[in-house]
Design a protein that fits this description.
heterodimer, A: mainly alpha, abc type-2 transporter like fold, four-stranded mixed sheet, 4 strands, elongated, B: alpha/beta, Rossmann fold, Alpha-Beta Plaits, 2 domains, six-stranded mixed sheet, 11 helices, 36% helix, binds adenosine-5'-diphosphate, binds magnesium ion
Chain lengths: 403, 315
């Protein structure tokens, strides 16, 4: 037991012998989380970022401007279109002709025909048509309400002159459209005291959640797979032989080395979990025990794989290439760099051979879908299976290591 | 009973390949300094590695302090300290941290460990550098620390594998004196080297190893007797060209077994320098040659090795 502690202590002392190593251990992971989080937010939630980029441009030809036409254009803007009023409609793009009798007919309650020029081969055509219909419907409805309002007001003598009527009409129209634009104000739901609002279940993690989980898996994987380097490095330095002639069993030596790496990995994980929560506001699910269980299982699987590789590689250079290549490869393929949900079903099946994919799956379930310990136990079980497999192979190989 | 018993030891690194150690047998008595002397690649490190349980023997048996290397490797490891040929230290840690870690790996702890560390630092004259990283040490200091680590826990047997390779003369002197000193305090030492002077100076008994085989074993006098009662007589002449002439003249004369010349230097293998010297000097004056220096060499391990293998030790 004492010797295991000595080996763990030794690993920490050497890992942090130089402050520079902290850069790799914690600073870079945090910077990457920030960078990747920002990058993903553009990809995953388009309307959160620069709006114009993702909206379709619609050129508008209009006879003259009046409050109803202006309201119509404004409404078009709120439904994912960018409008631009032009003298003549350009060819080969989306165009809209608003007739001169637009307001007149709308107020009379009769049908108005606007002409939409679409591109037959564009996938956006249907969407644009929907947007225009929706906007027209909203403005038509608001106009009707405003008209009825004015009639009411006239009957009660609240408005007398034509100017007053017009003002009242515009006021009601604007108010109606504004309310229609903010459905949240209407749809707010309150729950009785003492009752927890049900968690909103989402299909995918947010960009910061995906980045935090993904970068956690990536960087911790480097540390844990780093186990692949410890034997060959100590062999190179001659210290492995010295260890093997100490009155310490071979099994204890391998266990000590493995635990030492595991402890380092868990330490880094704890830092990154805390960093994700404090810096990026990631809420690691509602079940901290589940997060801990998945993190530990993933760490065991990965450090086991590292140790197994350690008994195979022959030079430090070789070990280093394997660690870097494998941890980057497994992180990328396993869904740490982009959500697995956006990949084809076939691909999602294939990457199940990677521990990292199970960790990412479990983290995403915990983060976005409100999963609890019971939900991710299968993931933990599979990760532990990996751990047992790799560690056993490593122990078998280490028995005759260097003999 | 001997502290170390090695019986018919064989090591083959690759099945069907050459024997790196080939049927080696010897014993080391408690309190002895035993040296394995042999050129590079002779099998010294391989032998030490098997005794220290690092390598499995292909065949043969080894017991250390009554423990079999295969049956009770932990018993063997408890009885030995090993100072490997190549430094085995953590460069990025301090001397004290190194000693602490290796002490813990030997099962030391608490006050006992602390005292051990202080004692070893003092012994190796490293006390005032204890807190510095090993990386900043000179070669000799690293060697001394390497040595100190091998002594932690004061095991009855310490194996030193070529501890003086590539160090300065002072550090070498320090180590040799220290080995002798520790031995007088009861430490048994297995020492390997390819320097015959070291083996000669330190050892109670010496095993000469070459190409995996132990070709001779015994105390220094026993080994030199193998060469026979011979001495080497070396004459240098003022006349560089006269060497061959003199060599030819003395060859075959009474008491002169071999004669060779190298420029002005004549090397004679003689039964006794006392009787051969007058003969040689007489021949020189007959030829009108004048002798500048005379050197008489007792047989040494170098000549023993040459005699047994036909090759020089330092080839
Ligand atoms: N790991 C190894 N694999 C194969 N051959 C080896 C290995 N180590 C040493 N040898 C060979 O075994 C022989 C003895 O080597 P070694 O014991 O290191 O000699 P020494 O220590 O006397 O210089 C040499 O021929 C060497 O090339
Ligand atoms: Mg050697």
């Amino acid at each position: 037991m004492r010797r295991l502690f000595a080996m763990i202590r030794n690993e920490f002392l050497r890992e942090f012998a130089y402050p520079l190593s902290l850069i790799f251990f914690i600073l870079l992971p945090v910077l990457f989380t920030a960078a990747v989080g920002t990058g993903l937010s553009g990809m995953m939630n388009p309307d959160e970022s620069d709006p114009e980029e993702f909206r379709t441009r619609l050129y508008v030809l209009q006879a003259d401007s009046d409050p109803l036409v202006d309201a119509f254009l404004e409404t078009l803007e709120t439904v994912n279109l960018v409008t631009e009023v032009v003298e003549t409609l350009p060819e080969d793009t989306f165009g809209l002709e608003i007739p001169t009798d637009f307001s007149e007919r709308l107020l009379a309650g009769s049908a108005v025909t606007v002409t939409l020029h679409t591109l037959p081969n564009s996938t956006a055509s249907q969407a644009v048509e929907q947007y225009v219909r929706a906007a027209q419907g909203r403005v038509g409805g608001a106009a009707l309400i405003a008209k009825l309002g004015v009639e009411q007001a006239r009957a009660t003598g609240a408005v007398n002159t034509e100017a007053e009527e017009a003002d009242f009409f515009n006021h009601v129209l604007e108010k109606t459209l504004e309310d229609a634009r903010n459905p949240a104000a209407v749809a707010e739901v309150r729950w009785p005291e003492g009752v927890d609002a049900p968690q909103v279940e989402r299909d995918m993690a947010t960009s910061n959640e995906q980045a935090s989980a993904g970068q956690l898996v990536t960087w911790v994987q480097i540390t844990l797979l780093g186990a692949a380097e410890v034997l060959v490095n100590e062999k190179q330095g001659g210290t492995l032989k010295r260890m093997l002639v100490c009155p310490t069993a071979r099994g204890a030596i391998l266990t000590g080395k493995l635990l030492a790496r595991l402890a380092l990995g868990l330490f880094q994980m704890a830092l990154l979990l805390a960093g994700g929560a404090l810096i990026f506001g990631v809420q690691w699910g509602k079940d901290p025990v589940a997060v801990a269980v998945i993190s530990l299982a993933f760490a065991l699987a990965t450090v086991g794989l590292g140790m197994f590789i350690a008994t195979i590689v022959r030079t430090p250079g070789q070990a280093n290439s394997v660690v870097v290549g494998l941890s980057m490869g497994m992180a990328a393929l396993g869904g740490a760099w982009y959500p697995l949900e956006i990949t084809p079903a076939f691909y999602q099946q294939v990457v199940k051979i990677l521990p990292s994919s199970w960790a990412m799956r479990a983290y995403t379930d915990l983060l976005a879908r409100g999963a609890t310990l019971v939900d991710v136990l299968p993931h933990a079980g599979i990760l532990l299976g990996f751990a047992v497999l790799f560690t056993t192979l490593g122990i078998l190989r280490f028995r005759s290591y260097g003999r | 009973m001997a502290l170390v018993e090695v019986r018919n030891l064989v090591k083959q690194y690759t099945a069907g390949g050459p024997n790196a150690v080939d049927d080696v047998s010897f014993e080391i008595q408690a309190g002895e300094i035993f040296s394995l002397l042999g050129p590079n690649g002779a099998g010294k490190t391989t032998t030490i590695s098997m005794i220290s349980t690092l390598l499995r023997p292909t065949s043969g048996a080894i017991t250390v302090n009554g423990c079999d290397v295969l049956g009770d490797p932990m018993g063997v490891r408890r009885s030995i300290g090993v100072v490997p040929q190549d430094l085995a230290l953590y460069d990025e840690l301090s001397a004290r941290e190194n000693l602490r870690f290796w002490g813990e790996m030997r099962g030391l702890h608490g006050d006992g460990l602390k005292q051990e560390i202080d004692e070893k630092l003092r012994l190796m004259d490293l006390t005032n550098r204890a807190a510095d990283r090993v990386k900043t040490f000179s070669g000799g200091m690293k060697r001394r620390l390497n040595l100190a680590v091998g002594l932690l826990g004061n095991p009855p047997l310490v194996m030193l594998d070529e501890p003086t390779v590539a160090i300065d003369p002072q550090s070498r002197r320090y180590i040799l004196d220290w080995v002798k000193d520790m031995n007088t305090k009861g430490l048994t030492v297995l020492y390997t080297t390819h320097y015959m002077e070291e083996a000669q100076e330190l050892s109670h008994r010496i095993g000469i190893i070459d190409q995996g085989k132990l070709i001779a074993i015994g105390a220094l006098e026993e080994l030199t007797r193998l060469v026979g009662e011979h001495e080497t007589l070396i004459l240098t002449l003022y006349q560089e060209s006269g060497g061959t002439q003199l060599a030819e003249a003395v060859a075959g004369l009474e008491g002169i077994l071999q004669a060779s010349a190298h420029d002005g230097e004549v090397v004679l293998n003689v039964a006794s320098a006392e009787t051969a010297l007058p003969t040689a000097l007489g021949q020189a004056s007959l030829l009108g040659l004048s002798v500048r220096t005379i050197e008489i060499r007792e047989p040494n391990l170098e000549t023993v090795f040459l005699h047994l293998t036909g090759r020089a030790l330092r080839d």
